[in-house]
Amino acid sequence: MSPLSAARAALRVYAAGAAVVLAQLLRRCFGGFAEPVFPPQPDRVAIVTGGTDGIGYATARQLARLGMHVIIAGNNDSKAQDVVQRLKEETSNDKVEFLYCDLASLTSIRQFVQKFKKKKIPLHVLVNNAAVMMVPQRKTRDGFEEHFGLNYLGHFVLTNLLLDSLKAAGRPGRTARVVTVSSATHYVGELRLRDLHGRCVPA
Questions:
Q1: Per-residue pLDDT tens over the stretch 82-92
Q2: What top-level branch of life does the organism fall under (predicted)?
């Protein structure tokens, strides 16, 4: 991507972000953000990708507060143990753990799934949250452009490898769930189907 195209993309992203923030503030002012009340969820298991920061951390904390067994899937080993300990203390739930998973590596994703399945526990909720945004032009370990490879392909593979566990855990009236977190930047994104890896500079 040329510098000019990158600058235009950045401006569109920030404009969309400002619009979303403004809309959320207006909704909050008019009482549109009443926090939903969920019943306790003991004996249920959730995986949250990117659960050491931001939305992923807040999601993991809420699920742990509901009594779920929460597995944080991430690639930040150095931060993970502190996060797990903090979540346990904040939620009084000892069923919080970390398993390494680098979504920029298909090998790492498969290894994560193997480790999870060795635990012989069900899976009721998969939250696909981890992502990168506006990183420099670079590739995943498998040669894919990083936004496409990590945000989309990584979660696609992870979800497909865990589908059997999700199907086995669900039942009528209490089905399993896959939740994929998205971004308002899709409003301004440009998808070039003939150049998904962003190798060509647009005219």
A1: 999 999 999 99
A2: Eukaryota
